Amino acid sequence: MQRIEAAVGHETGPVDGGTPEGAEDEADRRWALLADLYRREQPGLVRLASLLVRDAAVAEELVQEAFVRLHRHLDDADRPGAYLRTSVVNLCHSHGRRVQVAARHAPTPAPVVPPPGLPPDLSPVWQALDLLSARQRDAVILRFYLDLPDREIADLLGVRPGTVRSLVSRALTRLHEVLEP
Amino acid sequence: MTDIRPTDPDLEARLRATLTAAAPTDTHVDDGLADLRSRLDGATVVSLRTAPPVRRRGRVALVAAAVALLAAATGAAVVVRDGDDRQELDQSTTTPPEATGWYVPADLPAGWSLVSVGSDHLDVEGKGGTCPCPHTTWSRDDGGLLLLTSAANEAPASAPEVVSEPQPVQLDGGVPAFAGDVFDTQRIVTWAQDGRHHRLYGVRVDAEELIRQAGALAGGPASGRADPATPPGYTLLQRGTVPGGVRAYRAITVSLRHETRDVWATYTLAPAGLGGDVATLSVPEPAQVAGFGGSDLLRYGGIEEAPDASNSVFAGRLPGADLVVGDDPHGRVGDRYPTDADLELLLASLRPVDAEGWRRFVATAAEPADEASVIAPTVADLITPGEAVPD
Q: Residue B353's closest CA among B105, B88, B37, B35?
């Protein structure tokens, strides 16, 4: 199982933002690689993250953080796209719980505001997703937005495939109860 | 153990359509790429407490400079920068265990082991004004909950940003206010009074009742006080104050795993006043746990039911730190959630340690420790001072 510990601060290593003297070509090469990857992967990652954290601006910040982390491991990552997706999902998890912890100190309960452009007839579905636990919602998004198989969802969420099936099943049951009572 | 329902093609189709329509189309690629370049070019070696929250174009700042965390742990002193000012913290100063806010589990039953210690960076957003921000929570026997918060703000009352269609209302005594629904079960009333903006949230409290309670608070003798009287029919659940002068802070999460049962449990420590609460999705109840060395312990019921696990979250206060105990906030879950008994054992096992004891404990984690977790001599040092980021 690919398991990158991307919870904030779990990674260690030298800060690599500076450009040592005589290594400018290398720095330029790394930046070109990263920029190319960014243009390719950022839109999809932001869309995924915006569904997971239900806030497009927060999603953009989390994806930025994922790319900062990738930059540190650019030479080690065999599958940078997979690394990024895992990193973003983990960052979204971390953010989600912290939002819960901070919610009353903000002090604003997290609003359930339909995203711009969402057709009114789909708004109830969006609101109903908020009634799911974070894990249930994540599993549903990975299943029905990305169409990932159980195995990949399990890897991303750090659970067993059977748990994924259970999470999705319970989520659908709950959504059915809410939307079609 | 897995209960699989028959598929519902219509529901699944609506889900797919909703998720596709809800995902943003413009993700600001060029803007983001420029920001990334700037962030990487500016990755200098600074300490945790120098890391400023990143805020671009009004976005919520989240993760500040994670790259900034890496250097300071090895030094004897932490350079603290705030603007052009510099000062040094002497980490050799000994702080008594009971004052550090660091706690480690002692006497855990066999099978539990320390997996990781990580941290999260959190902005304190200045919604509604500046802190200190007193807050009071009352509950009702039928599951209703009121949450009153206030923050210094000389501006006139404004419509709450979390409400899509705020309605101007007049509270008792002629105080102008705005009211609206945040969600089906959550609503809010806001008003300005005595140089402060007040917000009264209601969970499972109808709109009429919420406006009536807001009027009583605004017009009563306790108006503007940090300790308003408990409304009739309600019980005081919690009272606290978010401290002022905090721009951001870190919360430290300790993750434990029971090897044979494949259960994860965690506890999170945050600076006092900043981290003792969890979501308002469920109405908490006071909890008593023998051996717990803190106060104001609340139990939030799990929102995901499981046959042999409660999935509860406990939140309380310890000397020097706020505490949350529950399952893994980073999404790691084994076969089942921790039971209340698991979490109560963890709560009862926590003992204060000094900074050195904390560092020794962190060093035993199976996974590489988050350096922010050992850099601060006390939990209070996890605060980045400054004014809250205005919303």
A: B105
Contact list in A for residue B16 (CB cut-off 8 A) is 144-145
Residue B239 has which token pair? 């009272």
Q: Count the alpha carbons within 13 Å of A71 in the hemisphere toward its beta carbon.
A: 31
Distance from CA of B19 to the nearest CA of A (A): 6
Neighbour tally for A149: CB within 10 Å: 12
Residue type, B132: P
Per-residue model confidence as pLDDT tens for chain A (181 residues): 222 222 222 232 333 444 455 667 778 888 898 999 999 999 999 999 999 988 888 889 889 888 887 887 777 777 888 888 888 887 887 676 555 444 433 334 445 567 888 888 898 999 899 888 778 899 999 999 998 888 888 878 777 777 788 888 888 988 988 887 6
DSSP letters for B294-337: SEEEEEEPPSS-BTTB---EEEEEETTEEEEEES-TTS---SSP
- Taking the CA of residue A149 and the nearest CA in chain B, the distance in Å comes to 15
For residue B243, give the DSSP letter.
P
User: Looking at residue B144, what DSSP letter applies?
Assistant: -
Q: Do B149 and A107 touch (CB under 8 A)?
A: yes
- Chains A and B form CB pairs within 8 A to the count of 291
Compute the C-alpha angle B156/B149/B225, nearest 5°. Answer: 85
Residues B146 and B202: beta-carbon distance below 8 Å: yes
pLDDT at A99: 52
The CB-based long-range contact list for A18-22 (8 Å cut-off, 24+ gap) reads A18/B43, A18/B44
Smallest CA–CA distance from B63 into chain A, residue: A65
Contact check, Cβ <8 Å, B162/A113: yes
Q: For B150-177, what is each residue's pLDDT tens digit?
A: 888 888 777 766 565 778 999 987 899 9
| Nearest-by-CA chain A residue for B390 | A106
H and E: helices and strands count for chain A? 7, 0
